[in-house]
Design a protein that fits this description.
The protein has 193 residues and is an alpha+beta fold. The chain contains three helices and eight strands.
Amino acid sequence: MKKLLFVSLFISLLLLGGCMHKEVNHPLTLIQAIKRAYPDALKWDKDARLIDAKSVDGDKRITRMNGKSSYWDITFGIPGTNKAFLVNIRDGEINNRTDITDESVVPLSDAYFITDLSKLKFDSPELLKKAMSTTKLYPIDTRKRRYIFGISKATEKDSMLVKIIGWDKKEEKMKRLQFNANTGELYKNAEGD
C-alpha cells in the first residue's frame, strides 16, 4: 500500500513539474540565437548568409539585464539576389520559419552579409556590461528592465556591429550604441546629444 501511495505521489509530482516547466523562458545571447537559427536557414538554401539579428518584444517574465533574450528575429538571404528568410525564436526555441523573398526589393551585394561568425568575439552580455558602465546606458523600459540587442554589417568598414539600445538616465533620449563585434570597441554612440 505504501509503495502504491509513493508511486502515485511520484507520478503526480512529475506531471506537476512538467506543467510548471512550460512556463520557463530560455533566454539566449545574440550569438546563441544566431547559431540556433542558422541550421534552418541552411535547410532553406545551402548558400544562406546572415543579414541581421535582433531581440524583439515578448519577454514577459524575465529581464534583459544579462544581455539575453528569449525572443529573436534572425534574417538570412542570398548575396546577389532578393531572396530572404526569417527565423523567429520564441522562448529560446525556433518558433517560425518564413521565406520573406520580395521580388520588388533590390538584390543585396556581398557587403551586407555577415559571413564569418568566428569573428564574433564579443557577445551581448559582455557588451551590455560595457555599455552600462562606460556610457551610462539605461533600460528602455524600467518596469520590464530591458534593452534591445542586434547585429548587422557596417558596409563601409567591413565589420560586424552589435547594437544595444536603451535610454539616457532621465529617459528623455534614446541611445543606440554600436560595438565592433571583433574588438569590443565602441564604434558609434548615437545618443542624439
